[in-house]
Amino acid sequence: MQVHRASPFLAAAAIIFLTLPSVALSAPPTAAEKRADREALKAALMEVLQRTALKSSRVGVHMQSLDDGTVVFSHNADELLNPASNVKLVTSAAALASLGPEFRYDTEFLVEPDLPTDGKVKTLYVRGKGDPSITTERLWGIVAELWHTGVREVGDIVVDDSWFDAERTPPGYDQEDSDRAYMAPTGALSLNWNAVAIYLRPGSGSGAKAVVEMEPPSDYFIVENQLSTGSRRARRISVTSDPAGPQQKIIVRGQIPEERGGAVSVWKKIDNPPMYFGQTLKQMLSTRGMKVKGKVKAGVTPSKAKMLYVSQSETFDVILKRLNKLSSNFVAEQLLKTMGAERRGAPGTFVKGVEVVEQFLERDVGIPRGTYVMKNGSGLNDANRFSAAQVNRLLRYMYDRFPFAPEYLSSVPIAGKDGTLKYRFEGSEAVGRLRAKTGTLESVSALSGYVTSAGGERFSFSMMANDFAGRAGPIVAGLDALGAAVAATGSSLGPSNAVAALADNGRAPGAINDVAARIKTYLDLGKQRDQRNIGFLRTAWRSERDPAVRAVLAESLYQSNPHDYLGARTLLDSYSATGEVYGRLKEVARVLSVEVPGVSSMVELAAGGNAEALARVLELAGATGTDAQSQQEMSEALGEVARTAPEELVVALRAADAGDREASTTLLARALVQAGQADHPFWKSLRRMLGATDPQLASFAKGLDSTLSQKVAEAKAPPRSPDGLVPVQVVAPAGNAPVVPARTGNPPEARTAETRPGG
């Protein structure tokens, strides 16, 4: 019997023993072998910096062995650069150190003067302490707990947001005017990351009004539904979210295809967190069966109020995973204010939070104040500066601190497995071995974290690239090559071969008929809109070297799950207006008798206001040349974008290459004439932008107004070619301003258009 009782231990010991030979049979590298590995790694890393897109950007790199402390590679490591979302590594480290791994948020529900005995609560006070993890599901559970305390009737609901100050967004957010979910404001009382889901479904038939539903539903929202059901397969929708006092106005425009199955969801930020929380709570109380006779009001909880129920957040490690794996700006800024309130006293402010972080960096990590710039906790926009050496120093500090290391390391994305690295490093030794935080802004890309090489050595690293021109895709590929090289150290493949294997060197284009046959297969998979195809499509995309086929694979990935940011990111990085992509896909379209692959998906993203997609659409307009069919397709596309994202289109035109802008305005003018609407949303938005506070934007809008007026007049009575279409002559104007013709009168339909509030 003793043997049987001991057998679990013996079995465990046997399992451990069986795992040892793979290490024990491989003798540790000699000093000479280690030096050779290091030299090979340095050579591979320098090759990446000199031969990839990284060579044309400002790059800082710092890599250090966690085993012996040796600096393995350093390049401009002390230069202060914009780290983008790598700042979240700083915020999460300071939060762990100052609040502790065991920290939980409290959200308090109180009544005054006494606890109810008859089930009737005159006033229910809700006092928030900054919990960033309350969702609709958790709030429903809270409502159930209130029911079980005996509450059956509530008068007023007072939402107490005083644990934080009234400043909703930190420095850096003011550089971007957007209603996107990643711009969500802070709030001591917050719900669903202070964003809302808008679900859109086709109506009963073509031409019918589509269905717009809010999740969660409540009186907080004022919905203006201008969405129709269309017969076209592609969707062209625009959703805007604007503050409306104590409420939020949601405006939905465009067209959703009749044949599309299920609902399309769009996430937007809200602007009044406590009222969003309070109105949703009111709705849920009513749904649960409790009467709510009063109103939702903002206020402060009286000192004599009695505690009815306290809801505690999840453990800190779960919150940190939300922060770093998904790169949540909202959670980062909530943590910053929380540190301020908990360590400097309520109300929590961004300034107090930064002070706590600075104290941690100087006292604990050894990074003095004044050697870096930190204005916010998320890294959004142009507000922060750190060096690669400073970030690497922080990483090493956290790795060596047992009370913090497990939660910290587990919060960071794993290469090829999850988070923002789920689809990066595929096919390399880095998969599963590398954990790192990504960072992406316009002209900024960063990657910092940890990696265990194939040879068993552990490293920390920080890599930042700033001020590069063009797309982020080639820069990201360069950073990934650096990481893959470190991961391959000590393997039979070696760093240099790992870099070569990960590089996309392309291949000679195949015969157009063969390429068309392969593309048709991938187009058919994309049409299925089945997420189960994503694994296969990802593998095919990673191994494919033909840029045109790769672009179609990217579109099919996007179509398989349009809500996945990473799918959209892949499409934006893979599709271009070059001859090898758009040019060859136009040939494929003729062979298959279909629309040019990829264009519809790019327009779909652009119609929703995606800035990168808008830039691609304008590049495509410039690449149509004199092809009548391509001109017609791009004219229709620009007309749809002008209807659903008019202001974003103006901004994109301002930033476009002069030649692309000239071609785009000609095609846009044709679309506006064909629409024939005096109150077209584009004319309204353009007139409103004439009074923009930015004088350069106002000047551009004035010039664009004149240019389009001239082109519209020409499009109404143009000389006709044999095919009935107006050929587009792409003539690049001097400078960056649009061509302003001598005659500046507006078309009749434009003169009568009235302005409207910004959307």
Structure explained in plain terms:
With 759 residues, this protein is α+β, with helices and mostly antiparallel strands. The chain contains 26 helices and 17 strands. The protein folds into three domains: 32-100 and 318-502, DD-peptidase/beta-lactamase superfamily (Beta-lactamase); 105-313, D-Ala-D-Ala carboxypeptidase C, peptidase S13 (D-tyrosyl-trna(Tyr) Deacylase, Chain: A, 3-Layer(bba) Sandwich), CATH 3.50.80; 512-751. 44% of the residues lie in helices and 16% in strands. Strands 3, 4, 5, 12, 13 and 14 form a six-stranded mixed β-sheet that branches. It has a five-stranded antiparallel β-sheet with strand order 2-1-17-16-15, with helices on both faces. The chain has a three-stranded antiparallel β-sheet with strand order 7-6-11, with no helix packed on it. Helix 23 crosses helix 25. The longest helix has 22 residues, at 695-716.
Please provide a brief summary of the model.
The protein is of the alpha+beta class and 759 residues long. 44% of the residues lie in helices and 16% in strands.
User: What can be said about the biggest beta sheet?
Assistant: 6 strands, mixed
Count of distinct strands: 17
Shape: globular
Question: Count of helices?
Answer: 26
Q: Remind me, CATH topology of the largest domain? A: Beta-lactamase
CATH architecture grouping of the largest domain: 3-Layer(aba) Sandwich
Q: Given this structure, which CATH class of the largest domain is correct? A: Alpha Beta
Uncertain stretches of 5 or more adjacent residues:
1-25, 728-759
Can you give the helix content as a percent range? 40-55%
Please state roughly what percent of the residues sit in beta strands, choosing from under 5%, 5-15%, 15-25%, 25-35%, 35-45% or over 45%: 15-25%
The CATH superfamily of the largest domain bears the name DD-peptidase/beta-lactamase superfamily
Backbone structural class: alpha+beta
Q: Calculate the terminal CA-CA distance, rounded to whole Å.
A: 76 Å
Number of domains: 3
